[in-house]
Design brief:
Layout lengths: L6 H5 L2 H5 L5 H11 L3 H22 L6 H12 L2
């Protein structure tokens, strides 16, 4: 896939775009670029996938008491 010459500039902004931390003027420019650039669209999709996976990990709850940890150990021993 042939990369647009402006892609290099925009590629460095994709992570901030995916995490919604890019300032509005840059967001607008990047959105316009994304409307025509499949290479950057693909990279953005990968960044967004990482953002979603990270959010899921952050939401996962870990056992908070010794009893919960012991339940996990017992369950693991039977696997």
């Amino acid at each position: 896939m042939k990369q647009n010459p402006s892609c290099e500039k925009f590629q460095s902004l994709l992570w901030d775009y995916a995490t919604q931390s890019l300032p509005q003027p840059e967001t607008e420019k990047l959105s316009l670029h994304l409307s025509t650039c499949t290479a950057c669209q693909q990279t953005l999709a990968e960044c967004e996938q990482i953002v979603r996976a990270t959010a899921q990990i952050k939401q996962a709850s870990l056992p908070t008491s010794q009893a919960h940890w012991e339940e996990l150990e017992i369950g693991r021993a039977h696997v």
